[in-house]
Amino acid sequence: MRKPQLSTFYTEKMVLKEGEKNFSKSPQKPKWLLDFLEKNELLKYLEIYQNFEPFIKEEFYIAHTQNYVDRFFEGKKPLAESNNLEWSPQFAETVQYTNASLYEAIKFALKNPESICFSPVSGFHHAQPMYGMGYCTFSGQVIASVKIFRETGMRGAYIDLDGHFGNSIEDSRSFVEDLNEAIPKGFGNINPSGSHERYIDNFKRELNILETAILENQINYLVFCHGADSHEDDDTKGQCNTKEWIMCAEIFYNFVKKLDEKLKKPIPLVLCLFGGYRKDDYDSVLGLHAKDLVICLNTLCGQEIRFEPILMPK
Ligand SMILES: [Zn+2]
User: Fold this and answer.
1) Which domains does the chain have, with CATH numbers?
2) Disulfide check for 166: which of 110, 125, 154, 199 has CB 3.0–4.6 Å away?
3) In angstroms, rounded to a whole number, what is the distance separating the alpha carbons of residues 69 and 30?
4) Separation of 177 CA from ligand 1 center, angstroms?
């Protein structure tokens, strides 16, 4: 049986202080989401772990050239802003904490598989070994999973339902020698293709392939990244309408539920945020993320929470 709360790896040090730039992009999202959950009486379903160490500079060398990492932490343009975000010393510090959050969440989930872990982060899946890209500074998934593999031999799969194709894992394979073991090729990074019904069919097919890999012990833990920008009203216009977006969450958590029964033990599971952009109504983005967490809690954690997000039509 799963724990009734989500073990959440969050500290305010992951968040850009008010007044800093990059408004409405990922750096403030973790805090806005937690505030939104509090307002909707959902914060009590998170158990927050905030005493974890940030990554030191050298840990980023796992997935990036020393040149890129060093220039980023020095704030030297253009590399320091190759992610399209304005650099500041505090922003650089948030990145050390967001990347550590995902690593800590996976580590905890592997040790305590009955706890579903939540790392409220985004800004990882477009980064390249030599520079950042598309609001993403470093390849947090690559660094977390390679560290985990080197420490424990455990291998992960990422189910990436952000509206944008997550390229950082595939683009790092030739740079990071043991990445093919840490996140195995083929079923490592799942990004469904198409939109609407085709997207959902493709997602289900990918989950079937993943299930075989898990049952054959090729994959030991899952990271689910349900970006809200795969919703069609997102500023970047995603693949799913509201019903379909919610259905994807239901499909995934029911997949995990059946998997737990087949394995006769809970599979280590971590949740992340990833994208979501609405200049007109950011609460629509946060509402979708909250709905995903509620579906997880109701499907896997024995909760019976009633929550419907208020989504502003575009
Ligand atoms: Zn995205």
Assistant:
1) 6-300 (3.40.800.20)
2) 125
3) 24
4) 27
Separation of alpha carbons 77 and 269, rounded Å: 37
Which residue in this structure is represented by tokens 């598309």?
A: 134
Question: What is the Å distance from ligand 1's center to 221 Cα?
Answer: 23
Residue 216 Cα, ligand 1 centroid: separation in angstroms?
31
What pLDDT digit, counting tens, does each position of 150-204 carry? 999 999 999 999 999 999 999 999 999 999 999 999 866 899 999 999 999 999 9
Distance, CA 276 to ligand 1 centroid (Å)? 7
Distance from the alpha carbon of residue 164 to the mean position of ligand 1, in angstroms: 4
Rounded CA-CA distance 97/92 in Å is: 9
Beta bridge partners of residue 49, listed in sequence order: 9
What are the E-state strand segments in the chain? 6-9, 46-49, 117-119, 156-160, 189-190, 221-225, 269-272
Nearest to 139 by CA among 117, 153, 123, 121: 123
Distance (angstroms) between ligand 1 centre and the Cα of 163 equals 5
Buried b / exposed e along 115-128 (16+ C-beta atoms within 10 A): bbbbbbbbbbbbbb
How far does residue 239's CA lie from ligand 1's centre (Å)? 11
The pLDDT tens digits for 99-129 are 999 999 999 999 999 999 999 999 899 999 9
- Both tokens of 21, joined, read 């730039």
